[in-house]
Amino acid sequence: MREAFPARRRWLAAGLTIGGLVLVLLAPIPLQAAPQERRISISARSFAYEPGTVRVNQGDTVVIDLESTDVVHGLYVDGYGVSAQAEPGRPAQLTFVANRTGAFRFRCNVSCGSLHPFMIGKLVVGPNLTWLRAVAATLITAAGAMLFFWQAGGERQDGAGTPA
Ligand SMILES: [Cu+2]
Predict the structure, then answer these.
(1) How far from 115 is each of 82, 120, 142, CA to CA, in Å?
(2) pLDDT digits (tens, 9 = 90+) for 48-62
(3) Which of 16, 22, 49, 76 has the least CB density, counted as fewest CB within 10 Å?
(4) How confident is the model at residue 99 (pLDDT cuts 50, 70, 90)?
(5) Range of 81's domain?
(6) How many domains does the chain have?
(7) Is there a single domain that holds both residue 71 and residue 110?
(8) Shared domain check, 48 and 120
């Protein structure tokens, strides 16, 4: 009878952990809005992009309107291998499907001056639900293991001392 209560708590810890894992891994969370066309205007000048960070969802068709306000600038998206060049008064358009999640740099690919190598922006394609779920599952497992062993330790103390 003395063993029953801590054992039950241990089962509770295990149950909560497994339940949490199932929830995190299988829940049909509305992942992301349906893929849509995202039109984004980016203004380039020496030596920066405005905006410097662009966020889209995986599957979106990204249409970038690139304009330059001073000299000829380019925009090359790392990981996607697409690019466009714009000169002042002659904007360019770049279209691609953001089918890969993650953070990608976009950079100027037209030599435009001394700080040209530092003319860099960021494209964030997310959310990466698979990664988030993996992290959450790891955290829950760790928390569950801690709870389990903490309860097991408590049981030894209960057994040695005060009756439950
Ligand atoms: Cu440049």
Answers:
(1) 22, 10, 46
(2) 999 999 999 888 999
(3) 22
(4) very high
(5) 37-126
(6) 2
(7) yes
(8) yes
